[in-house]
Amino acid sequence: MSGLLGYVTSVGGFALLSLLGVAWMGTRPRSTAARRAVAAIVIAYAAASIRMVPWLLSRPLVYGFHEFRAADAPVGSAAIVLLGGGTFTIHGPFQRLSFLDLDSAARVLEAAHVYRMFDTAWIISSGGASAGFELEPSAATMRDALVRLGIPANRIVLESTSTSTRDEAVLVAPILQTLHADHVVLVTTDIHMRRALAAFRAAGVDALPAFSQDPLKSQSRLRSIMPTTEGLQFTRDVTHEYAGLLEYVMHGWLRF
User: Is the pLDDT of residue 255 over 80?
Assistant: First the structure.
């Protein structure tokens, strides 16, 4: 279900629906319904690609959360769970190069920031490889980025087989037991935090939320009210989170 919603709220989904609408108009040139359908497709996707629109729709997802500050860091050791976002591995003739997408980069920066708030901390870099360009597990790519930011490699533990948030919670829970940390801090994007916390609580882990900063926060205000590919991507992310929350409610992993 989430895969279908993800495709519909993508450039490919817009192209496919537009082609179907144009084909309908071609076979029924006098059809008012066909013209209205094409107009509705264009208007809907134009609205979905304006980042301000999904931002407003996402506010219930982030209600009650605030930026993790030094005052929020309790005394004792911590295990910081860094949830994987998107990473890509590109192959050349003799070498390959893996890199983070914007959301993953923001999560890595937040994990490094939180790490320095504790006297003793571990970071669990979590996330497997998914279909497409992501051939190296995101956990490994994020680990390499953390090391470049000055985090000691021997303080980073990998969980590199999960393919969903639920998988991450189930696989990370036993790792946390071996670390014997006093506290658990969960790092992910703000719109993903509510579902991530629910997944970890269902796995028996109570964590403190530390959401990453918006990687597009520094872009001009004009771009936030103009149709952009980033806006459509954000709509896809928000839609995915609402669909995921509905699934969690149906499975009893989340209760209001």
Answer: no
3-state secondary structure of 240: helix
How far is Cα 246 from Cα 256, in angstroms, rounded to an integer? 11
Tell me which residue has tokens 């669909």: 243
- What the block records as the tokens of 89 is 């591995």
pLDDT of residue 221: 82
pLDDT for residue 92: 81
Please give the distance of CA 148 from its chain centroid, rounded to a whole number.
Answer: 22
Q: What is the pTM of this model?
A: 0.91
DSSP reduced 3-state for 71: helix
Q: How are beta strands 96-100 and 87-91 bridged, if at all?
A: antiparallel
- In sequence order, what are the residues at sequence separation of 6 or more whose Cβ sits closer than 8 angstroms to the Cβ of residue 73? 114, 117, 118
C-alpha separations of 166 from 43, 79, 162, 218, 244 in Å: 35, 18, 8, 32, 10
Distance CA 29, CA 21 (A): 11
Pair 87, 101: CB distance under 8 Å: yes
Task: Identify the CA nearest to 85 among candidates 168, 175, 2, 11.
Answer: 168
Q: Give the pLDDT mean for 183-212.
A: 97
Q: What is the pLDDT of residue 36?
A: 93
